[in-house]
């Protein structure tokens, strides 16, 4: 069988001549059978040839695991030809996941102790390629001895093996510290490169080693200066750059040694300036050295002028024809823009030009850097450039570009009018790509700029008449037309071109929005509410508006149907309330994170009491009737008779909020429920200006080990009281004292009768559904007297 086996060259030729995969498998299976037979027969003369063929089969992707033990036999053989193929097979067929790799530890140890350089090189290569942690611990002393061998060939491979050992077992760093200092004096570039790599690994993994090797910074500086200034033989020159691989590795080591160390940084400052100014940037090898120089300058405590030089190098990279170099420059400048903003700003025109790169990755990086460069001094110019890019940028970049422009305008807007114009242009260009809060932010901005109401409503009307496909733009325009439709018809705005608009044109435009297939349900809700508001803003007959409300009273969308039914009720039954209900909305301040409920309400009322006019007596009583209309009757709540209105009471009835800060002596809290870690507390607030109003905050906390889910709190009061339940902050009370759940109850007590409260709690806890009904009769006297 062995005699009929093919030679390696013949096997390669026959496999290449196979026309189908089936023929290839047939040839390989046949030859693998010969190889197995040869291994069983134990032919010592031809076993290395059989293993060589098996390794070729393994490289083609076919199974060759049955050759692992043969590798061990060849490694133990005294013949060099056997050892060479055996070590090659061990590197390809064995790894640390297989226990068989531990069997060659003794053979490697013996070969390392021999004086034959070729055999030592084979053993070191195998150890660095597949040596496990156990092998590294066992063989570290032998490798340490070889680091100082006379032969440069062995020393170079020993250094690389030491690097592998440090990565596998960082605890071995103490063994390799002494030889490294001697190896730094080597003139052999291969050994010096490996030594610098070894020191880098040691410094990254051991603080003691980092402190130890800071002493050799002057020596590293001298070596690098020699490479840069005097050059070296053509043997180590790459495109005219003297050994760029060694330069890059030394710069990386200097970066680690100089980080957060003033003395080391000072030592290498002059050298870094020389490297930055004397390295040829017309070749890729020179650019690699320059880039590592920039990273080193930025990572150590370098001088300010040196950092400016590093930024200028990156600026030159932006002009390079190689896209990879431009991408690296943009990424690096993006990291430096916070620490060296003024230096990066000098290259702003070049960065903006990169926006129009055909490469999507370059364009995205340029966009991120351009947005980071926007400040109060250049916001107008940069926004104009970004808006031009937004009009032609790829769809996958539009969301980031639109959101970035809006954020920049919000932070650095010089005037409110410019801010509004910027947002309108973004909404017109890429409205469907903006963030969800863009509509609310623009509405708040317009509402807070009273002097720009007429200008804004005219701009939005014109934009809406041209395009109703951009949904955020349509929503803002509908809201603005509904709020300030009277200003649209007056034609008193001097900041825009004269625009003659009739009432029928405005109504027709909003009806067009309602009927458009592109309009979302939320957009239709804006348009429907705008029509309703225009019934009080515009003079004339409202039959057309009433007809639209009647049509949408049977809409399939529940939200639109509910709005239309309520608006119809205002027209038919409560027409005398319509003007008061649809008054212009006051400015609503943007809220931050959850704050204390009572402090929040006091702040809101303080702001509203300064800005909002006091309603009349009729409007105050009308609001109570409106609650009947929208909320419907409740068996647990009956509205009290009309109260004697005062200016303070009127505001409370209109906004249903307290109108003064908390009293100096607060009402004590009351614990009303506790079970299995769930606790319910009530806190009370009585606004001084409205003695009939009581605000109760229900706070649920959970100290148990399981979350309380699906938590619902319901309340009932006697018929002489009026109760309004606000939405809770959530339906889950986290375990282990997490964020509590809160809910606000508003109770009107016109007769100042003793208050009784009935609560029903339903929730799930520890996999069980719980329902609790109880009455609270021990409320403090201060809550009703």
From TrEMBL:
<protein>
    <recommendedName>
        <fullName>AP-1 complex subunit gamma</fullName>
    </recommendedName>
</protein>
<dbReference type="GO" id="GO:0006886">
    <property type="term" value="P:intracellular protein transport"/>
</dbReference>
<dbReference type="GO" id="GO:0016192">
    <property type="term" value="P:vesicle-mediated transport"/>
</dbReference>
<feature type="coiled-coil region">
    <location>
        <begin position="1"/>
        <end position="28"/>
    </location>
</feature>
<dbReference type="InterPro" id="IPR011989">
    <property type="entry name" value="ARM-like"/>
</dbReference>
<dbReference type="GO" id="GO:0030121">
    <property type="term" value="C:AP-1 adaptor complex"/>
</dbReference>
<keyword id="KW-0653">Protein transport</keyword>
<dbReference type="Pfam" id="PF01602">
    <property type="entry name" value="Adaptin_N"/>
</dbReference>
<keyword id="KW-0175">Coiled coil</keyword>
<comment type="similarity">
    <text>Belongs to the adaptor complexes large subunit family.</text>
</comment>
<dbReference type="InterPro" id="IPR008153">
    <property type="entry name" value="GAE_dom"/>
</dbReference>
<feature type="domain" description="GAE">
    <location>
        <begin position="665"/>
        <end position="780"/>
    </location>
</feature>
<keyword id="KW-0333">Golgi apparatus</keyword>
<keyword id="KW-0813">Transport</keyword>
<dbReference type="InterPro" id="IPR002553">
    <property type="entry name" value="Clathrin/coatomer_adapt-like_N"/>
</dbReference>
<dbReference type="InterPro" id="IPR017107">
    <property type="entry name" value="AP1_complex_gsu"/>
</dbReference>
<feature type="region of interest" description="Disordered">
    <location>
        <begin position="592"/>
        <end position="616"/>
    </location>
</feature>
<dbReference type="InterPro" id="IPR050840">
    <property type="entry name" value="Adaptor_Complx_Large_Subunit"/>
</dbReference>
<dbReference type="InterPro" id="IPR016024">
    <property type="entry name" value="ARM-type_fold"/>
</dbReference>
<dbReference type="InterPro" id="IPR008152">
    <property type="entry name" value="Clathrin_a/b/g-adaptin_app_Ig"/>
</dbReference>
<dbReference type="Pfam" id="PF02883">
    <property type="entry name" value="Alpha_adaptinC2"/>
</dbReference>
<keyword id="KW-0472">Membrane</keyword>
<dbReference type="InterPro" id="IPR013041">
    <property type="entry name" value="Clathrin_app_Ig-like_sf"/>
</dbReference>
<keyword id="KW-0968">Cytoplasmic vesicle</keyword>
């Amino acid at each position: 069988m062995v005699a009929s086996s093919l030679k390696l060259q013949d096997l390669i030729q026959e496999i290449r001549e196979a026309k189908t995969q089936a023929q290839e498998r047939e040839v390989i299976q046949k030859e693998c059978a010969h190889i197995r037979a040869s291994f069983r027969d134990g032919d010592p003369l031809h076993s290395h040839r059989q293993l060589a063929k098996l390794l070729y089969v393994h490289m083609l992707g076919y199974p060759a695991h049955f050759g692992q033990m043969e590798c061990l036999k060849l490694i133990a053989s005294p013949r060099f030809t056997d050892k060479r193929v055996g070590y090659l097979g061990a590197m390809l067929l064995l790894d640390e996941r297989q226990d068989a790799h531990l069997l060659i530890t003794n053979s490697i140890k013996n070969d390392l102790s021999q004086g034959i350089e070729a055999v030592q090189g084979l053993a070191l290569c195998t150890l660095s390629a597949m040596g496990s942690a156990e092998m590294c611990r066992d063989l570290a002393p032998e490798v340490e001895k070889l680091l100082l061998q006379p032969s440069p060939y062995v020393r170079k491979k020993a250094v690389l093996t030491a690097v592998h050992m440090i990565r596998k077992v960082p605890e071995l760093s103490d063994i390799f510290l002494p030889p490294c200092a001697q190896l730094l004096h080597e003139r052999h570039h291969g050994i010096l490169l490996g030594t610098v790599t070894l020191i880098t690994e040691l410094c990254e993994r051991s603080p003691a080693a980092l402190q130890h090797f800071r002493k050799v910074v002057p020596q590293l500086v001298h070596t690098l200066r020699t490479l840069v200034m005097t050059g070296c033989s053509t043997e180590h020159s790459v495109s005219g750059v003297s050994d760029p691989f060694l330069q890059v590795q030394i710069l990386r080591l200097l970066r680690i040694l100089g980080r957060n160390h003033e003395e080391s940084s000072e030592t290498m400052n002059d050298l870094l300036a020389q490297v930055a100014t004397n390295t040829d940037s017309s070749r890729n090898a020179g650019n690699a050295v320059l880039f590592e120089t920039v990273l080193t300058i930025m990572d150590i405590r370098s001088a300010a002028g040196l950092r400016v030089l590093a930024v200028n190098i990156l600026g030159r990279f932006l002009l390079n024809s190689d896209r990879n170099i431009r991408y690296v420059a943009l990424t690096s400048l993006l990291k430096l823009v916070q620490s060296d903003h003024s230096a990066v700003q000098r290259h702003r025109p070049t960065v903006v030009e990169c926006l129009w790169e055909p490469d999507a990755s370059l364009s995205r990086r340029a966009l991120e850097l351009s947005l980071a460069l926007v400040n109060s001094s250049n916001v107008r110019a940069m926004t104009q450039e970004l808006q031009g890019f937004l009009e032609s940028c790829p769809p996958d970049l539009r969301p980031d570009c639109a959101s970035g422009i809006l954020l920049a305008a919000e932070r650095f807007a010089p005037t409110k009018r410019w801010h509004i114009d910027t947002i309108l242009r973004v909404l017109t260009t890429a409205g469907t790509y903006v963030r969800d809060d863009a509509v609310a932010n623009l509405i708040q901005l317009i509402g807070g700029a009273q002097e720009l109401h007429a200008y804004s409503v005219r701009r939005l009307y014109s934009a809406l008449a041209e395009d109703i496909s951009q949904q955020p733009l349509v929503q803002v325009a509908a809201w603005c037309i509904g709020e300030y439709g009277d200003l649209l018809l007056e034609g008193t705005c001097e900041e825009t071109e004269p625009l003659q608009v009739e009432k029928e044109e405005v109504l027709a435009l909003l009806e067009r929005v309602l009927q458009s297939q592109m309009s979302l349900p939320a957009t239709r809700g804006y348009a429907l509410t705008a029509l309703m508001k225009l019934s009080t803003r515009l003079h004339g007959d409202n039959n057309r508006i009433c007809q639209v409300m009647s049509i949408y009273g049977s809409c399939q969308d529940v939200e639109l149907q509910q709005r239309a039914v309520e608006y119809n009720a205002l027209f038919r039954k409560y027409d005398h309330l319509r003007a008061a209900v649809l008054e212009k909305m006051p400015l609503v301040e943007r809220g931050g994170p959850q704050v204390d409920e009572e402090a929040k309400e006091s702040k809101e009322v303080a702001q509203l009491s300064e800005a909002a006019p006091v309603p009349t007596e009729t409007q105050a009583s009308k609001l109570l009737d409106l609650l009947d209309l929208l909320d419907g009757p409740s068996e647990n709540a009956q509205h009290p008779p009309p109260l004697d209105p005062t200016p303070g009471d009127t505001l409370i009835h209109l906004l249903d909020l307290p109108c003064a800060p908390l009293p100096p002596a607060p009402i004590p809290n009351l614990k009303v429920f506790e079970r299995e870690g769930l606790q319910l507390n009530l806190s009370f607030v009585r606004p001084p200006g409205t003695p009939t109003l009581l605000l109760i905050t229900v706070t649920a906390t959970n100290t148990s080990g399981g979350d309380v889910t699906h938590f619902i709190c319901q309340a009932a009061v006697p018929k002489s009281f009026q109760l309004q339940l606000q939405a809770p902050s959530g339906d889950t009370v986290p375990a282990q004292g997490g964020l509590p759940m809160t809910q606000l109850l508003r109770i009107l007590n016109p007769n100042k009768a003793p208050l009784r409260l009935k609560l029903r709690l339903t929730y799930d806890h520890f996999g069980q559904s719980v329902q609790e009904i109880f009455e609270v009769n021990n409320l403090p006297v201060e809550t009703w007297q």
